[in-house]
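**User:** Once you have settled down, spend some time on the protein underneath, comparing sequence with structure tokens, and judge whether sequence predicts the tokens.
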Amino acid sequence: MKEKIMLKANEMFLKLGFKSVTMDDIAGEMCISKKTIYKYFCNKELLVEETTERMHQEVNQKINELALQNFNAIEENFEIQKMFKEMFKSYDTSPVYQLKKHYPMIFMKIQEKSIEFCNSNFRNNIEKGIREGLYRTDLDIKAAVDFYYTLIFYINENTIYEKDVHEMEIKALEYHTRAIATPKGVLELEKHLQNPNI
């Protein structure tokens, strides 16, 4: 039952917003009593924390799975963007923006974990791109990683609408890639930018 509650809460939080969804709303949607929810979650904040932690883990797992596929480094970044677009396409408001606004302590916990994961993921991507001849060999990898995740985090934390988040992330990805790419990498980037489905 706990899993079902978390799944329904996650769906409703993303669709309607973390602040506006109440425990009564979730109970009503599931046709269960509010008491049943409180059996597993003593308050809404705990439910928000556990559902966002679960979402964070699922996103990281999907990114790790994409990294294991046979994409080149630039293609991999566009596949990750495609995954985010697909995951959040039915939601109007950015979940990260909502979380920061209404549950700042939970946001800070998730952000700490996200920074660690992004550092590792971005570094691996850059090292892969260098091996493939898509990124320059003279890069300051740490600076490139820091710049990119600063851009991505700023966009997610400060952009209200999910559609705008995706558009800005694609622009940030282009900016990041042009800054570190070889001529071969720029050609690969241009190929992906011409795709109307990005």
